[in-house]
Amino acid sequence: MKRLQSTLLLLLFVPLIKPAPQTRQDLHIIYDYGTDNFEETILNRDYEDKYLDGKNIKEKESIIPDMQRFQLQKDESATLTPKKENEEMPTCLLCVCLLGSVYCEEVDIDVVPPLPKESAYLYARFNKIKKLTAKDFADIPNLRRLDFTGNLIKDIEDSTFSKLSLLEELSLAENQLLKLPVLPSKLTLFNAKHNKITSEGIKANTFKKLSNLTFLYLDHNALESVPLNLPESLRVIHLQFNNITSITDDTFCKANDTRYIRDHIEEIRLEGNPIILGKYPNSFICLKRLPIGSYI
């Protein structure tokens, strides 16, 4: 009788007992196990476990503003306007320094930058330099070549090149010069074409002591006469497109020496001047080649 009562009670309470709810992990495994997407489901579950709880969501959200701030700082730094105060920048950052050569071309400098003491070549073409002074090269004794083509140079101190005893090539082409400074004695090439130089702006002895000068370019200026005392070493003389109206028997030759031959000169250009070369036959008797220009 007691056994029957126990059985009846058990039958009454069994329907009231419910199994414990399955966890999210159990649901994932039961639902996807054995399917083709099982591995993908496991990866998705790991992603959710890592980012979808409250703590990690906040961490993720805090990362995003930091990344945005970093990108903003990067964009702002990329649009900063570079400094125009070139003199405040080290020369070899503003220019290019390579084995004794300094290249400062088209960098908008308006003065000669401080140069490394070992500099032998300076290329400062197409800038805004207006003046050259002795201080610019006072501590650079090894300079052999200077090129200031295409600047705005109007004035050069007479002592600017006085300490450059090794200087061989000097280009001042395409500037605004009215006169020439004292030139270093070892020059082999001097180029001052396309300036505003007048005959009064060239002293009588400017070229006399330049015994190594080989190439002289003074074309496209305002010269009224051929410079005096041109050295014997000259091979090429360009004087075209000036205002030269006359020459003398001593301009290229020696009036008192009919045997004198000027051996080295290969080219003299005088075209584009008002002078009629045919009127001065004795001025060329020492030359192996007649100057280029108008003879009639």
Automatic annotation (TrEMBL):
Signal peptide start and end residues: 1-19
UniProtKB keywords: Disulfide bond, Extracellular matrix, Glycoprotein, Growth factor, Leucine-rich repeat, Proteoglycan, Repeat, Secreted, Signal
SMART domains: LRR_TYP
Keyword Transport (UniProt): no
Subcellular localization(s) per the UniProt record: Secreted, Extracellular space, Extracellular matrix
Pfam families: LRR_8
PROSITE patterns, per database record: LRR (PS51450)
Superkingdom, taxonomy of origin: Eukaryota
Protein function: Induces bone formation in conjunction with TGF-beta-1 or TGF-beta-2.
Family assignment from sequence similarity: Belongs to the small leucine-rich proteoglycan (SLRP) family. SLRP class III subfamily.
Protein known as: Mimecan
Native organism: Echinops telfairi (Lesser hedgehog tenrec)
